[in-house]
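ugh ok fine here u go
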Amino acid sequence: MNEKVALNVLGITYNRTHPETYILIMIEEGGVRQLPIAIRLAEAQSIMAFIQRVVPQRPLTHDLFSSFSKAFGIQLQEIFIYHYEDGLFSTEMIFNDGDREVHIDARASDAIALAMRMHAPIFTTRSILDRAGITPDPIEISSGKNVDEETDIPVKKFSIDSYSTDELKRRLQQAVDKEEYEQASRIQQELKRRSGEDSLPS
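structure:
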């Protein structure tokens, strides 16, 4: 069986080939290879809302599904991107209610948006990462926001607030190891800002 590889959400950027979509960038856990996935505007907004801790006045679809699953004791065990062909990823969500395990087919973007909310791991195969993954040049983190004016979605350079907290912590350690103290300071400031938001009373 093809070896599974864990992925983390890195951020979102423009899709310059198809301007009506965005690219969700996944990164190999413990590695540098990235897996770009084309997603629609709605899913891009949902993922960025979660990353930036934006609380909408009414729940988004992925928030609603997460709340529904938790209310009925349904656990999302993992997301598995198991097939890739012609630029399309086949993905399944694996749920467990304590009595049975259910596999549900889904778009990668929906599955990942839900996995982020339900703290479920995301996997693909070594073969898919070899075929569809990229190893980009190092990305400099910008302290300013780079915003798509039509949709208000922050996109890269990467803007520092478009990274997930786990990815920022990983990049903070990398910056310290490389003695890139100015970049490390920017990352620390963003982590402190997020920590302060988490401690605010609801």
